[in-house]
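I have been asked to look over a protein record a colleague put together. This is what I was given:
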Amino acid sequence: MMASSIPAGFRALPLSAVQLSLAAVLKCGQSFRWTCYPLSPSPGTESCPTHEYRLCLRDRVVCLRQSSDYLFYRSVFPEEHLSAAQEGVSDEDTLTWLKDYFQLDVDLVKLYDQWSDRDQVFNKLKSRFSGIRMLRQDPWENLVSFICSSNNNIPRITKMVHALCKQYSPSLISLPPPEFSESDSQGPAAYHAFPPPSLLAAPEVKSTLRSLGFGYRADYIQRTAKMLVDTHGSSMSNSESREDCEEWLSGLRDMSTEAAREELLKFVGVGRKVADCVLLMSLDKKEVIPVDTHVHQIAIKHYGLRTVGGSKRKGVMTPRIYDEVATKLADIWGEYAGWAHSVLFTADLKAFSSFGIEPSTPATESIMDVGTSALASSSSKRKHDEIRSEVEMQRKVMLMGAAVAAIAAAAAAAVIVAVHSDEDDSDDLSSIEDASSPTSHGRVKRRRSSD
C-alpha cells in the first residue's frame, strides 16, 4: 500500500472488510457511543474511506476509517504535544485495544463458512452482511447501555447514553469534524468518557437521569451502580484507572456462563435478555444467544420454530419460549452461536434494509431491464386489448337487455362495490394483528421499535 493513500495522521492495519465492517458492527445495536462522520469521496479512488468513526475512552479519542483492505486508526490525547517515543507507545496501546475490542484474533471468514455449511438461511445472507463480528466491550458500559435498552430503540438508546456521559463525565477533549467547510454547521464536538459506577451511585442520580428522559430506567441504573459500589468497592485498583467493582465485573469472564448470568441477574433492571447481551458482548460467552421478539420471529420465520401449542403467531416472551429459541439456534450455529445470531439480527433491522445492496448504474439497469421491459410491454398490451374487447361486448349486451335487467345489474354492482370497500380495510396488517390479540399489539409494536 502506498503511503500517500493512508489518511494523514493515521496508521494502517491490513484488514479486509469481510473480517470487519465498521458500517455494520458500530451501528447494529451493540455499542451506542460511536459517532460517525461522512467523508467526501476522493477522486480516482474506488476503495477510499467513506466515514470516520470516533469513540472516547478514558484517556483518548480513537478515530477509525476503513477501506476494503485496511483499517486506519489514530488516537487523539488531551495533551497538545507528544514526543516521538510517547506517540509510538500510544499507537501501540491503541492497536492493542483495537485488536481486543474487535476480537481480531477470531477468523470471521472461517466462521461464516462454517455457519453457511450448517445453515442455508445464513448462506443466503453471508455475502450481503459480511464483516459482522461481536465487540468485546467494557462490561460496565455494556451493562448500563442494555439496562437502557428496555422497551427502547437504537437511536433513543444512543441519545440516552451520550446524555449520561455528558452529564457525569467531564469533557476530555474537543475535536472538529474530520472535514470542515463553510457550509458545515457542525463545530468542534466535546468527547466524554463513560463514567465509572461511583459517579452513578448517589441517590440524586435518579432524579437527574429522569430529567434527561431515562424514565424508570433511571432507578435501575442508580441502584445497580450502588449495589456494585457497596459490594465490590470503588477504589482505583490498577494503572487502567478502573474501580474495584469494574474489575469484579470483568472477572465474570473467568466464570462459567451459568455462574456469570446468575451474578448479573442480581442487579436491578437486569432480566434474562439484558444479562445475555452482557455475557455475549463483553464477557466472552460467545455461545449465548440473547432472545427478543426480533430473534423469536427469525426462529419462527426461517427455522420452523413453533411456539407453545403449535402456533406460529407472535406471543409474549416466556422463559420456556426463550429457552426453546436459544437452544434451537445454538444447535444450528454451534460454538459461536451468539456471533451468528448477531448477523441474522442485523439483517432483520429496518435500518439495514438496503445495506450491502450496490446501486446499479444506468447502463447496467438498461441491459438488465430492456428484455424484461419489452416482454412486459407486449404482454401488457395483449392483456389490455383482451380486457377492452370483453368490456365492449359486455356493454353491447347491456344495451340490448331489458331496463329491469339493467337496473338489477346496477344494484348488484353497487352491492359488490360496497363489499369490496369494506374488505379493503382489512388489508392493514396491523389491524389483523390487533384482531388476533386485542391487548398485545401495542406491546409488540414497542418491542419491534428496537430497530
Q: What stands out?
A: The radius of gyration is 28 Å. Confidence is low (pLDDT under 50) at residues 361-388, 390-451.
